Amino acid sequence: MFLGSTTFGGFHITSCDAHGNRFMLIPWRSSFWGTCLSVIRQLGSYLKVASYFLFPAIQLAAGISHPSWVSLPFFICSCVGLVDWSLTSNFSGLFRGWRYLQLYAGFNAVVLYVYQLPIGFPMIVRDTARIVGLFNLSVESDWQEACSGLSLILLYFVLSSIKSDLEEMEHIMSMRDNDLTERLLPSRKSFFIRESRC
Which tens digits make up the pLDDT trace of 146-193? Predict the structure, then answer.
């Protein structure tokens, strides 16, 4: 719902800006819908910032809420990120291996969902699933299983929402030259540099 309203709001604002607001008599910025859209946009930016700070807690909750072989990678990556952050004092260390975590969280959520379906699995599949840590959620489930499922979905959602920022951060951190002016200047192979020299 939130994603749909944000997408609709962004499309509406872009189309009004692009077409010069031909169809509305009142400028959209001073209208009720403009106010609502600006509030939604601000809430989205606050949620995005909050997701950066909540990521380590959600990752740790996914790793320790229901201890099993399935949740072990979340716990290991959380420990590695926290140690990296404490040794380097660099906040980006918390997001080490985020691509693999996103892929694994998505796969884990799909497998857990399929395991919830009312399908008569063979006994060997049920025993293997129980050993690795899959579980059936029901009314009788304990809070650890519910917390594990919720933190798994939240982890995937948080990683998906900050994916573009993490990719940009990786790109900036992977640049070999530490000189800031080299980062700000376009490369010699850039199209604009070649055209200006001709």
Answer: 899 999 999 999 998 888 888 887 777 777 545 555 555 555 554 434
Q: Enumerate the H helices of the chain as residue ranges.
A: 2-18, 32-64, 72-88, 98-116, 123-132, 143-161, 163-174, 180-184, 191-197
Q: Scanning the structure block, which residue is given the tokens 């077409």?
A: 19
Model confidence at 124: pLDDT above 90? yes
Please give the model's pTM, rounded to 2 decimal places.
0.66
Q: Say how far apart CA 28 and CA 22 lie, in whole Å.
A: 11
Instruction: Round to the nearest angstrom and report the end-to-end CA distance of the chain.
Output: 52
User: Cα separation of 178 and 157, whole Å?
Assistant: 33
The string of DSSP codes covering 151-172 is HHHHHHHHHHHTHHHHHHHHHH
Longest dimension (CA), the chain: 74
Dist. CA 170–CA 97, nearest whole Å: 11
Q: How many angstroms separate the CA atoms of 2 and 182, rounded?
A: 40
